[in-house]
Automatic annotation (TrEMBL), chains A, B:
It is an enzyme of class 6 (ligase). Its EC number is 6.3.5.3. Transmembrane segments: none annotated. Part of the phosphoribosylformylglycinamidine synthase complex involved in the purines biosynthetic pathway. Catalyzes the ATP-dependent conversion of formylglycinamide ribonucleotide (FGAR) and glutamine to yield formylglycinamidine ribonucleotide (FGAM) and glutamate. The FGAM synthase complex is composed of three subunits. PurQ produces an ammonia molecule by converting glutamine to glutamate. PurL transfers the ammonia molecule to FGAR to form FGAM in an ATP-dependent manner. GO terms for molecular function: ATP binding; phosphoribosylformylglycinamidine synthase activity. GO terms for biological process: 'de novo' IMP biosynthetic process. It is found in: Cytoplasm. It catalyses: N(2)-formyl-N(1)-(5-phospho-beta-D-ribosyl)glycinamide + L-glutamine + ATP + H2O = 2-formamido-N(1)-(5-O-phospho-beta-D-ribosyl)acetamidine + L-glutamate + ADP + phosphate + H(+). Keywords: ATP-binding, Cytoplasm, Ligase, Nucleotide-binding, Purine biosynthesis. GO terms for cellular component: cytoplasm. This is Phosphoribosylformylglycinamidine synthase subunit PurS. It comes from Arenivirga flava.
Length: 82, 82
């Protein structure tokens, strides 16, 4: 059964307070190599049947409407695994 | 500047209520091809300098300690992009 992974990230021009908090924690624990951290979401959709073009088109529609808020987020990748 | 992506998902044996809610919403709107949805986190760490083995080792350590809770989550992938 294929799985389709949808990655959603906060838009680059928006602050990401959760990411800033993690970046601050990294700095305080001495990991100074990391200049920025951003935190988004990873959705794994299990598909019943083949992950063909029709399913991918449906996933693109779902990603844009249900899985992300296009005011503040971008769908950065849709990938088929398995 | 390379970016290291860390993907964290809820463990397979745990319920994922957020994922179940999305799966339910998909079913109600007529997208019946999707049998399961799970929702995890995607961290993007911007690295100052090359993403060499030392940095990756540090990221593995950070992923296991700071970015995930190993009681309920698995680090499923650590990937270098750019």
């Amino acid at each position: 059964m294929p799985t389709i992974v949808v990655d959603v990230m906060p838009k680059a021009e928006l602050l990401d307070p959760q990411g800033k908090a993690v970046a601050g924690a990294l700095g305080r624990q001495g990991s100074t190599r990391f200049t920025d951290v951003r935190i988004g979401k990873r959705f794994e959709l299990a598909v019943d049947g083949p992950a063909d073009e029709a399913v991918l088109a449906e996933v693109r529609e779902i990603a844009a409407t249900l899985l992300s808020n296009d005011v503040i987020e971008d769908v950065v990748a849709i990938t088929v695994v398995d």
